[in-house]
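seq:
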Amino acid sequence: MGSLDVPKDELTVLVTGFGPFKEQYPVNPSWEITASLPDHLPAERAKDAAAGHQAPAAAAAARLPAVRILKHGPVRVNYEVVRDLVPTLWDGPPPEQRRPDYVIHVGMAGPEHVYSVERRAHRDGYAKPDVDGRLLGDEQRREREGDGWVWHGIPDELLTDLDLDRIYKRWVERSPDNLRLRISEDPGRYLCDFIYFSSLAHLRKQQRPRKVVFFHVPLHPGQEYIDRGRELVLQLIRSIVEVGLEE
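struct:
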């Protein structure tokens, strides 16, 4: 994942992507997009800044601090791997190093040419086996472990603490007009939903702000889609940071 030992005035955004999804999808565009990201958020080009019509956006862009981008993956499409991984993403570095300020989980959706930021994630309803043929089995685990179950006392649905409506508006302003961008309310109750809920639940248990979001991209692995996805992730990062500075 790389070091989180960064200057105090630098923000850190961690981005994750998934690995292959069974034989029919040997290349997962979510990881190809994530792996292609630069180590730092590039300075905004003049024509991109001009595309944003609102004064607050321009003002936020002008005072944007340096933003380091860390990448982790490819994450195996496996429930137990994800459950073990997520706490280390948020808490792994030694105390003298900084935790990520924001996390963006990226995952593959269907063939439809739609890019979705997810508002919420779910605790229950994971009935599909992972790539290793294993079910989550949390219903049995919850009965067996009782109060010791990892998500005991956690609501069955959690939402990001990010102001997604404002972020979405800023993101759309900076994106090509011919793309279908949306806020989604259902990540699908599979590994995408699961990694998102795992992050949200971990932060809730620690009483920390839930500064995490999930981004769904189309399943197409071609270079055109990778390049487009990379640009959308960069503009999403920029929008998240700008809105965060305004709060």
